[in-house]
Amino acid sequence: MSDRNTNASRALHDGVKRVIDVIASAVGLLITAPITTATAVAVAVSMGRPVLFRQQRPGKDGRIFELVKFRSMREPDATYKSDAERLTRTGRFLRSTSLDELPTLWNVLKGDMSLVGPRPLLVEYLDRYTPEQARRHEVRPGVTGLAQVSGRNAISWEQKLAIDVEYVDNQSFVMDLKVLLRTVSSVLRRDGISAEGEATATLFTGTDPAPGGNHGV
Which of 32, 139, 176, 184 is 20 to 30 A distant from 118 in Cα terms? Predict the structure, then answer.
């Protein structure tokens, strides 16, 4: 297939996927409204305000957007310093059930994210990726992704980033459907929520370069 046909096919895929994202996120926001309201009340009662967690994240082509989730941690202070200490009982439940992700449907509706794609990570990671790992930003980030249903935080950063690039190279509607179905199963089993000894995942500090290879730091 020529580059022109490949680009046209990719553009058609991206356009159809965007339509699906808009419809699905709008319907999802309506259907989950009672759960979202109840979750907001639970967060307010257990942790106070703000109810939402907002943070800058890189999206498609590295463009920065504001990710919105339900708050799951106390504010850092002298008593609660580490993420594990700041994570509340309510927050742990929200993360294990992925209820903290409900507000990200607004990010999907706005076009910052897609339902399926590489998870949006920290802005500070941008200059730590190898050129190959940075290819994860060739598509919109997702609420869920291939890496999330392949081990989530229980696998290494190198594995997760390699899987993200695998998704970029092989994305299709069939793959997206499989990821969504596996996401439901993963959430029900509560698999890979945290890295060993961590509240969520360890920080990504960069990949050690192979001899003669590129350095991501």
Answer: 32
